[in-house]
């Protein structure tokens, strides 16, 4: 894999040329900024900013005004190669709070396992409706605890909206141990690009270390390859990064969400 070429394609296709999702959130370009604004259940934030040391502070302030006027919490998705070099410090000074850093990893879809290898007692169930979304939300709570209940509810609303409005742009799956949901994962397609994004995959602690997350990656990789997507992209946590390394994913860069609450 040509690291520089894939990183350039990722920046151009996923960030600079991002398009609106469904009928809700709107992607707009204001000056050198690409940002998305939607409802409270949508992702709101800055995807790309063509700025330098002389313009950064004014651009940051304009984004704060925009989302504050809309009554939205938002995220500035900062990547390790973004400029200016001190952008992280400028965001903190403006009142943003940094979430944990993630690693942007990419693999060629066709190079990944062709079929999931499921541990005994586990089956993968496609998520296509509100019942399946509820199972995904239960799996999320099992993985991350009741303290994440608000995020689980927010995620469920977003996934259900995607399944309803743009069903061809999302694939979701839940891993079931009998009647208990133990892992939920999804894949979001970016039509017109080379990339499909893998999201979720948190697993009930009682079922970790058995290959369930790996199986959901293989399940989604097969579908992405069948639909003609060249790359799978993941914003990997420290927990999932070693698994993805072993599957053949390569690191493109790191990304840190800087969150602003009006």
Write the layout of secondary structure elements.
Elements: H1 3-16, E1 26-30, E2 33-37, E3 45-49, H2 56-70, E4 74-79, H3 87-93, E5 97-98, E6 102-108, E7 122-127, H4 130-144, H5 149-165, E8 170-177, E9 180-189, E10 195-203, H6 212-226, E11 231-236, H7 241-247, E12 250-260
Parallel strand pairs: 3-4, 10-11
Antiparallel strand pairs: 1-2, 2-3, 4-12, 5-12, 6-11, 6-12, 7-8, 8-9, 9-10
CATH superfamily of the largest domain: Gcn5-related N-acetyltransferase (GNAT)
Uncertain regions spanning at least 5 consecutive residues: none
Number of helical stretches of at least 4 residues: 7
The major sheet is characterized as: 12 strands, mixed
Strand content: 25-35%
End-to-end gap: 41 Å
Can you tell me the CATH topology of the largest domain? Answer: Aminopeptidase
- Percent helix among the residues? 25-40%
| CATH-level-2 architecture of the largest domain | 3-Layer(aba) Sandwich
Order of helices and strands: HEEEHEHEEEHHEEEHEHE
- Indicate the overall shape: globular
Our Rg estimate from Cα atoms comes to 18 Å
Secondary structure class reads: alpha+beta
Instruction: Name the average pLDDT.
Output: 94
Count of distinct structural domains: 2
Number of extended strands: 12
**Quick one: CATH class of the largest domain?**
Alpha Beta
Keywords: Transferase
GO molecular function: acyltransferase activity, transferring groups other than amino-acyl groups
InterPro entries: Acyl_CoA_acyltransferase, GNAT_dom
Protein name: N-acetyltransferase
């Amino acid at each position: 894999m040509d690291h520089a070429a894939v990183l350039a394609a990722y920046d151009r296709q996923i960030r600079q040329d991002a398009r609106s999702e469904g009928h809700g959130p709107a992607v707009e370009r204001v000056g050198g900024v690409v940002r998305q604004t939607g409802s409270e259940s949508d992702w709101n934030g800055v995807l790309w900013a063509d700025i330098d040391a002389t313009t950064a502070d004014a651009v940051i302030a304009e984004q704060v005004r925009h989302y504050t006027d809309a009554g939205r919490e938002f995220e500035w998705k900062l990547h390790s190669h973004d400029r200016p070099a001190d952008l992280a410090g400028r965001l903190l000074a403006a009142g943003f709070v940094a979430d944990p850093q993630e690693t942007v990893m990419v693999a060629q879809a066709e190079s990944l396992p062709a079929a999931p290898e499921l541990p005994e007692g586990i089956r993968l169930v496609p998520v296509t409706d509100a019942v399946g979304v509820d199972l995904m939300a239960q799996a999320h709570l099992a993985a991350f605890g009741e303290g994440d209940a608000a995020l689980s509810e927010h995620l469920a609303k977003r996934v259900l909206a995607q399944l309803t409005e743009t069903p061809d742009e999302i694939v979701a799956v839940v891993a079931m141990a009998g009647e208990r949901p133990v892992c939920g994962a999804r894949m979001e397609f970016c039509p017109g690009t080379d990339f499909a994004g893998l999201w979720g995959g948190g697993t009930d602690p009682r079922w970790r270390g058995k290959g369930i997350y790996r199986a959901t990656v293989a399940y989604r990789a097969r579908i992405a390859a069948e639909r003609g997507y060249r790359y799978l992209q993941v914003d990997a946590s420290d927990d999932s990064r070693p698994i993805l390394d072993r599957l053949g994913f390569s690191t493109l860069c790191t990304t840190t969400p800087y969150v602003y609450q009006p």
